[in-house]
Amino acid sequence: MSAPSRIFLVGPMGAGKTTIGKLLARHLGLAFADTDSEIERRTGADIPWIFDMEGEQGFRDREEQVVADMTQLNDVVLATGGGVVMRPSNRAYLAERGFVIYLHATVREQLRRTARDRKRPLLRAAKPETVLSELMTLRDPLYREIADHVIDTDGCSPRTVAQRLQAVLG
Question: What is the pLDDT of residues 21-68, one digit of tens each?
Fold first, then answer.
C-alpha cells in the first residue's frame, strides 16, 4: 500500500499530534500542517486569547472553518486539536477526506505531558485530571468512530510512534 496523500491525526491533548505529525510528514515526504496553528495565523491571536474573548463556542466555530479548508489539502499530514471531533461536520470532513489516525494516550500520560503547559485553556481548572478524564470519556468514542488506525502513544517516543506509523502506511 502506498501512503495516503491526506493523513489526519486526532487524539487528546498531550498525545503528540504535532510532534509526531512533523516527524511522520518528514518520513513520508509530505507537508505538515496544524489546525491550531492555522487558527492562530488567521486570527493573529493565540488560542488561549480566543477562548478568553470568544469562549469555546467561538473557537470551535473558527476551528470548523479551518478543518473544512485544510482537509482538502493534498500531500499533507494534518494535526488537529483535541476537541475537533466534537462537531459532527468535522468528523465527516476528516473521515471522508483522508486517512485518520487516532493517537491514543491515557489520562495519566496526558497529565505527565501537559503538566507544565500553560497554553491549554481547558486545563486551567483546579483539577486537570478530572477535566482530562471527562474529556476522554466524551471524546474517545468519537476518535474511534472516525479512525482508520489507532496507535497507543504511552511510553513511546514520538520518533518510535512515527516509525511505527510509517510502517503501517507503507
Answer: 999 999 999 999 999 999 999 999 998 899 889 998 999 999 999 999
Alpha-carbon torsion, ordered 42, 73, 21, 97, to 10 deg = 120
Q: Which three cell numbers stand for residue 86?
A: 466534537
Provide the CA 47 distance to its chain's centre, in angstroms.
14
Q: How far apart are CA 83 and CA 136, in angstroms?
A: 10
In whole angstroms, give the CA distance from residue 8 to residue 167. 16
pLDDT digits 0-9 by tens, 57-114: 999 999 999 999 999 999 999 999 999 999 999 999 999 999 999 999 999 998 887 7
Give the predicted TM-score (pTM) of the model: 0.92
Domains of the chain: 6-169 (3.40.50.300)
Question: Taking all residues of the chain, what is their mean pLDDT, rounded to a whole number?
Answer: 91
User: Among all chains, which residue has been given the C-alpha cell 496553528?
Assistant: 37
List, in order, residues 6 or more apart from 59 with CB less than 8 Å away: 39, 47, 50, 51
10 forms beta bridges with: 102
